[in-house]
Structures are given as structure tokens and as C-alpha cells.
Design goal:
It contains 9 helices and 11 strands. It is of the alpha+beta class and 354 residues long. Strand 8 and strand 9 form a beta hairpin. It is elongated. Bound molecules: the ligand Nc1nc2c(c(=O)[nH]1)N[C@H]1C(S)=C(S)[C@@H](COP(=O)(O)O)O[C@H]1N2 and molybdenum atom.
Length: 354
Amino acid sequence: MDGPSPSRSALEPRPRLVDWSILACVLLETLTGIVSLGAGVAEQWPLFWVHRVVGLTLVVLLFFKLRRVKPRLSRGRWDRATPLSVLTAVVAIAALASGAAWVLGVDVDLGFWTLLNLHIGLGLLVVPLVLLHLRSRFRWVQRADFEERRTALQYGTFLVGGALALRAQEVVNGLTESEGATRRFTGSKPVDGPGFPVTSWVADDPDPVGTDAWRLRVGGLSASDIELSYDELEAGDGVRALLDCTSGWYTVEDWRGVRLGALLDEVDADPAARWVTVHSVTGYRWSFPINEARGFVLATHVGGERLTHGHGFPLRLVAPDRRGFQWVKWVTEIEVRRRRDASQYIATLVSGLD
Ligand SMILES: Nc1nc2c(c(=O)[nH]1)N[C@H]1C(S)=C(S)[C@@H](COP(=O)(O)O)O[C@H]1N2
Ligand SMILES: [Mo]
């Protein structure tokens, strides 16, 4: 058992409360982190803000916790669960450090991955590690843990302190015009130089798609189904849109192609249809509410040039206000549906792994 350590500072909650708070923070970070991957409009900034403030709170709590358990790391005091605990601590610290570094404007080239990808990977790893760690170290929180009057004050200080630290960091970023100042609310930075990255999720990397055999199918919950060849696409609609990838970069480009709503009109989508799934030749797919999707463009061109293979030739989705992973490349089918396609999450993760 951990007795109340005599050297507990004024800011330090009781040990069990620290542990439970860490668990709550980890779960909240996981939730906000995952949801934020799909957040593309500015009104969703609080998600990112909460993720950062709770992350800072975790740093403080973890500091208290590690200081408390440090004696247990000395020779002869290890038990069977200690190695896992150490691993959990190391991964958690790495997750926090990579997240903080990213916010501060640091990026290191990790080959296929950005620092933000590393942060996401480490963060997702923390969850099972913490759950395993709980199996051997679980203790119910007790009422006495909350009875100290200063508890509320302690947590208030973490949150206000975290918010002030973030604000200060933004101001400093702005004054020094550091790299962090150019970030979007999502944390993404503008891509510099001509062109923008070719990004594929995990392993999606099809052979170049030739236009001879390629067709765009449009149909499903509609009066008719149609198939269009590349030459039949009337690519006259232009849109300037911001592509924001969850690996941490964004770019504004001029796209040209076919308005998705025009295709839906052509097949006479059923009034009962609520969703549209956009399929790639690779099996990668994403679905959208039909009314929003009507405004999307299926692009054949970007920046006045025909799409390259990497950017999705012959046809790729341009979905303004949606995060990059939903901008399906190498599109081959528009499927009108009653419901959202629940298999898309798995399909998108494993696409290209065969
Ligand atoms: N079929 C397919 N479409 C895809 C992807 C993919 O892996 N497969 N990656 C997505 C991701 S994660 C992003 S950010 C954008 C990147 O588009 P770009 O390569 O043209 O920059 O495409 C999206 N469309
Ligand atoms: Mo992405």
C-alpha cells in the first residue's frame, strides 16, 4: 500500500486520487484524440484544446506518481508486474513528449511517419498498457481521497494553469513567428514548396489506374444505375478547398471535376436515401450524409493539371471541411444508401494490406 507520503506538496492529490485521475485523463485523451481525427471545421477547436490541457494535467499527475513509486524501482523491490509498469511509464512519457513537441512546432522526419503519427501511435499503445497495469495494481478510490478541502483547488489549478500555459505558448509562437504560429486549429501546418504530399493511409498503394477499363458507377438506392467512362465525365465544376491530413499538414488547392450532386440527380436518388458511400478501386471507402455530399466535387484536375496517380487519377473526392483521409482517391463507385456504411472503418484501416 502507498501510505500518504509525508512530502506531499500542496498541489498533490492523495495517491489513489492521482492514479484514478491519470486513468480518467488517459481515457479522455484517447476519446478526444480519436474524435479529433475526424474534426475538420473550426467550431470543433474545443476538442483540440481539451486534449492539450488534459495532456498538460497528465504531465503533472505523472510527475507526482513517478516520484511516489520511484523507491519501488530500487534493487530487490521489483515484483512480477514491475516491468510492465515501467514500460507503461516509458510509453506514456514518450506519448506526452511527442505531443508537446508537435504543439511547440517541432517536427522530425521519421521516414514514413511524422512526429504527429508517432504521437498517435504511442497514445493508442498507452491504453492497453494502462489496462494491463490496472490488472495488477487496481485499488478502488475511497471517499477519504476526496475529503481534503484542497482537492478542488488542486484540480482547478491544473486546468487553469494548463489553459494559461497554452495561451502563453500561442502568444510566444505568434511573437517569435515560430513554426508553431502557422498551425491550423487542428495542429496541422501548411505544406511548403510546390506540390503537396502524396499520402496514403497505412498501405493503400494501387497500380496506376488506366482509363480504358475504368468506369465510375453511380447507383444503389436510386431510380437508375449508370456507368461513366473517363471521357464521359463532364468535369466543369471548380472548387478551392483545404485538404487537412491527420498526419499534420494542410494545403489549399484549386480542384476541378464533377459535382457529386449532379451525378445523384442523374440517377434520381431515392428520397429515402440518407447516405452516400464513395468507393475506391482499392476497397477504401467513406460515407457522408447525402445533403452534404451533394456539394462535394469528384475531381479530375488539381491546380489546372490532370491528377497524378499519387493524388488519385483518374478521379478523387474533394470533401471540403472533412479531414484528408475522407478524400477518397482512385474513386470508382458512388453508392446511394439508406444508412451509413459501418464497414468503412475496418475497410479503410486494412485497405491495401493484402
Ligand atoms: N483510396 C485511398 N484514398 C485516400 C487515401 C488512401 O490511402 N487510399 N489516403 C487519404 C489520406 S489519409 C489523405 S490525407 C489524402 C491525401 O491526398 P493526397 O495524397 O492527394 O495528398 O487522401 C486520402 N484518400
Ligand atoms: Mo491523411
